[in-house]
Amino acid sequence: MSQIPVDCLYEIIEYFEDDKKTLYSCLLVNRLFCEISVKIFWRNVLSYNTSNFSTLITCLPYDSKNLLYENEIIILTPTLIKSPTFNYAKFCKVLSVNRVHFKIRELLKKNQPIYLSQKRVEINTNIVVQEICKMIINRSSLKSLIFSYYPTLTFTFCPEDITCFNKLSELRCQSDFSSEFFYQLSQICHTITLLDIKFYNHISNGLADLISIQKNLKHFRMTQSNYLKGIPSLIANLPNNLIKLNIYGGNFISLSFITKFSNLQELELSFGHNPDFGDYEKLLNFRFSRLQIFTIWHLNSRSELIIKFLEINGKNLKEFYANIYNDDINLAIIKFCPNLRKLSIRIIKYELETLKLIFKSCQHLESIKVWCGSSYLNEKEVLEAILKYSHENIIELILHMLHEQYNARFEPILSDDLDAFFISWMNRIPRKPLSFKIITRDCYKSLDKIDSNMKIINKYIKLGVIKDFKVINDNETFTSNY
Q1: pLDDT tens digits, one per residue of 68-111
Q2: What angle do CA 183, 188, 194 make, to 5 degrees?
Q3: Is 87 strand, coil or helix?
Q4: Could you tell me if 84 and 132 are in contact, meaning their C-beta atoms sit under 8 angstroms apart?
Q5: Bridge partners of residue 434, in order along the sequence
Q6: Separation between Cα atoms, residue 148 and residue 138, nearest integer Å
Q7: In 289-412, alpha helices (H)
Q8: Which residues neighbour 179 within 8 Å (Cβ) at sequence distance 6 or greater?
Q9: In 446-479, which positions are buried (b, 16+ CB within 10 angstroms) versus exposed (e)?
Q10: Distance in angstroms (rounded) separating the CA atoms of residues 100 and 52
Q11: Which residue among 2, 24, 87, 382 has the highest number of C-beta atoms inside a 10 angstrom radius?
Q12: For the segment 174-214, what is each residue's pLDDT rounded down to a tens digit?
C-alpha cells in the first residue's frame, strides 16, 4: 500500500466521498490516509454537522475569538479550546453561507443563556457566521459559493482576500446583493461554469458586469417571483454556448431568448400556475438538436404546447420529467420519445394500459418515477405493472406518494404483496439489483411508514435484491442546494 503514489491513493479514496462510514475508516489507517480523508471530509460545507462547526470555531484567529468574547458569545467548551489537529478551514471548497448560518444558529441556541432574546441570538449568529466565512475565504481556494437569503451578512474583500475566488466555478446568489460585491467578483471570477441567480427586489448594477465576462458559462439557473424590468437585458449577455438552462417562474418574461442556445442539452421550465403564454409557442416549436433532458412544471392548461415540443424534440430525449397529468401527453411520450432512459409520469386509476404502452414503446427505459395515490395508481398497481410489463433494462423505481393521512380510503400495500414483488424481482432473468426510492411527506401514507414493510426492504437489501433504498422528503425535490 505504501508504494501507491499519493495522487492515485487520493483518486481511490475520492470514490468514498458519499460513503461516510468507509471514509471514516480511512482516517484510522495511517497518517497519509488520514490527511487525504480529512481533505475530502471537509470539502463541502453542505455536509457539515454541528460538530464540524464547533471545530471550525476553534480554528478562528485570535481577533475573531476576541470579537466573540467581547460580544459575550460563549460557544467553546474546555474540551474545544485546544488547537485543532488540522487547519480545517483551508480544505473547504464549497462554501454555503446559508448552511453556515443555519448550523451556527442551531449551535448557539444550544449553548447561549436561555434569557437571550431572539433578536440577540440572531445578532450573535450573524457575528459568528461572518467570522467563520471570513476565515474560510482567507484560507481556502473556493470552487463553489452559495450565498442567498441573508442580506444582513455582507463581505467586503481586500485584494488579498478575493484571490480565493480566482478558481470559482459555481456561484449561487441573489440579484439584489451590493454592486460592490458583484463588481469585486467580476474582477477575478472569469471561470464560472454554473451561475444560479434568484431575482428579488432589484438587480444590482455589478451583476451585469459579472455575467458579461463569463465566456465559459455552461449552466444558468434563474428564479423570479415577480417582474423585474432589467432581466431581459441582463440575460441577453449570457453566452450562446450554454448546455443547461433552468428557469423557475417563467411567467414574467419572454422566453424566446432560449432559442439562441442551440447547444442546450438540458432544459427545465417552471411556468407557475397562471402563466401568461406570450411567445412561448415560438420556444416550444423550436428544434433543439442536442437536447437530452427536458423538465416542465405547471402547464396543464396548454398541454398541446408540450405535445408539439415532444413531436419536434422527443426522439433525442433521454430523460423527461413532467409535474402534470394529461393523458394526451402520456400518449405523446409513447409516440415521440422512444429513446428515453428516465421518465417521470402521472397515470390515473384504471389506465394501466398507458403504462403498458410506455414500456412497450420505451425499450431503453432504465428509471421510472410514478406518482401514486389520490386519483392516480396505488402502490400495489404500480408494482404489479412493473413486474408484468417492464423489460430487463429497468434498474430504478421511484414512487412519488400523494396519500395524505386524512384520506382514510387509502391503505398502503400489504407486507405480503411487497414481499411477493421482491421475490419476483429476485427471480427475473437477467437478475439486476433494483434502486428503490420513495418520495413522500411525514403526513402522507406510504409503504415505508409500516414497520413490517421496512423489515422486508431491509431483508432484500441484505440479499442484494435492492441495490439502494432511500426515502426522500417531497419538499426537497423542487429546491436547489442552498
Answers
A1: 888 888 775 444 456 677 888 889 999 999 899 999 988 888 77
A2: 85
A3: coil
A4: no
A5: 466
A6: 20
A7: 303-313, 327-336, 352-361, 379-389
A8: 204, 205, 206
A9: bbbbbeebbebbeebbeeebbeebeeeebeeeee
A10: 10
A11: 382
A12: 888 888 888 888 888 889 999 999 988 888 888 998 999 99
pLDDT tens for each residue of 57-70: 988 988 888 898 88
pLDDT tens profile 340-350: 999 998 888 87
pLDDT of residue 481: 43
User: How many Cα neighbours within 13 Å face the side chain of 461?
Assistant: 12
| Residues in the chain, pLDDT under 50 | 1, 77-80, 151, 159, 405-409, 478-482
> Do residues 99 and 125 make contact, with C-beta atoms less than 8 angstroms apart?
no
Q: Could you tell me the three cell numbers for 482?
A: 442552498
Name 229's Cβ contacts closer than 8 Å, sequence gap at least 6: none
Sign of CA dihedral 400, 406, 410, 412: positive
Q: Which residue has the cell 411567445?
A: 279
User: Which residues have a Cβ under 8 Å from the Cβ of 170 and sit 6 or more positions away?
Assistant: 94, 143, 144, 145, 146, 192, 193, 194, 195, 196
Residue identified by cell 417521470 is 344
Task: At 41, list the grid cell.
Answer: 471530509
Report the pLDDT value the prediction gives residue 456, as an integer from 0 to 100: 94
What pairing do the DSSP bridges indicate for beta strands 144-147 and 170-174? parallel
